[in-house]
Write a structure and sequence with these properties.
32% helix, mainly alpha
């Protein structure tokens, strides 16, 4: 007599019919660009960023080459990722998807040049979305 062992699903694990949506963090739910623009305006008025509505991706490409090191250094500052503002409506949209039975998964890549990026992104998620 053979039997298949069924492993119980862990909390949050998608069921066979539950759709899964992957949501990027930077620029989708956390406002990376607004954080850069705010820090540049506050501490480096000599840096000429394009108007916010005309920004390009990646953001550093829209900065004059001579000023790129200064802008990319902002990503390494303590609190850069943790202090990004949520994009308007993003948190509510995530909660709505979950309420509709969608298994929402956040996906993001930490910047290898920023030693605090990964931990600060986790702190951001816990602060804005909760531990679960």
């Amino acid at each position: 007599m053979s039997s298949k062992r069924q492993c119980p699903k862990s909390p949050g694990e998608p069921s066979e019919r539950q759709p899964v949506v992957l949501v990027d963090m930077d620029g989708t739910i956390a406002d990376f660009d607004a954080r850069v623009y705010a820090l540049v305006a506050a501490g480096h008025p000599e840096v000429r960023l394009p108007p916010f509505e005309q920004r390009v991706y990646p953001l550093s490409r829209g900065v004059p080459a001579s000023q790129r090191p200064l802008v990319t250094a902002l990503f390494k500052e303590v609190g850069f990722f943790r202090e990004m503002a949520p994009i308007e409506g993003a948190i509510e949209a995530l909660h709505q998807m979950v309420a509709e039975g969608i298994n929402v998964r956040l996906c993001t890549s930490p910047l290898s040049s920023s030693p605090r990026c990964a931990s600060e992104k986790i702190e951001w998620v816990v602060a804005h979305l909760g531990q679960a």
